Amino acid sequence: MDALLSPAQLAGKLSTERGQAAVLATFTATLFLSALLLFSVQPMFAKMVLPQLGGSPSVWAVSTCFFQAVLLAGYCYAHLLNRFVEPRLAPLVHLIVLAVAYLAMPIALPAGASEPPTDGAYLWLIGILSVGVGLPFFAVSANAPLLQAWFSRTGNPHAQDPYFLYGASNLGSLLALLSYPVVIEPIMGLGEQSNAWTLGFMALAIAIAGCGGGNAAESDTAA
Fold it and tell me: Which residues of 58-93 are buried (b: 16+ CB within 10 A; e: fewer)?
């Protein structure tokens, strides 16, 4: 069938296909990086704070509950953003959230953090988690549902079934969990890990801006 197209039509078709492939690759890579950061920051910050409280099951339980609660909050924020904010404005709102989260970096124990009190050590831990990593974790946790919704509006041939993007997300999650104790922790100190995470966060923000630009452009076209 391509042989029946004029050179101009063929060039246009090839350009469209390349553009669709680029959009697909951008969203896939962005979700992969987001999951990689999301699941690598948890063991990194735990290593920062646990020496002061120890690695008892109760400490791990409090930390796990904190991260799950913030993850749920990120999903709720993504739902509200997708539901109540215009598609062309939603990327800008999320980029502002990412910019505010960047102010909390590099990831580290809050300045002046001392030994936990004798009473209320777990409340102290929740406070340290909130100040030290809460906002960046919240901002990154919202990316999966947001990017899926944005991708569904791009007009890409795969846009009607964006859930395959969870494959990229799951791969990033698995890689982070497996590589941290085997690769990252043995060769990088906590300061280096934090700086690397900050650089990854900056790269993620740029990638999300690219994804959001496509979402806004498609929204304007539809309008």
Answer: ebeebbeebbeebbeebeebbeebbeeeebbebbee
* Mean pLDDT (whole number) for 43-64: 81
The pTM score is 0.86
Q: Which amino acid is at 35?
A: A
| In the predicted structure, residue 214 carries a pLDDT above the cut 90 | no
- Spatial distance between the Cα atoms of 172 and 174, rounded to a whole number of angstroms: 6
For 19, the token pair is 């553009």
Classify 67 as helix, strand or coil. helix
| DSSP state letter for 35 | H
Q: For residue 70, give every residue at least 6 positions away whose Cβ sits within 8 Å of its Cβ, in sequence order, or none.
A: 134, 137, 138, 141
Q: What is the dihedral of CA 86, 90, 91, 92, to 10 degrees?
A: 100
- SS3 call for 86: coil
Alpha carbon separation from 74 to 8, 85, 222 (Å, rounded): 46, 16, 28
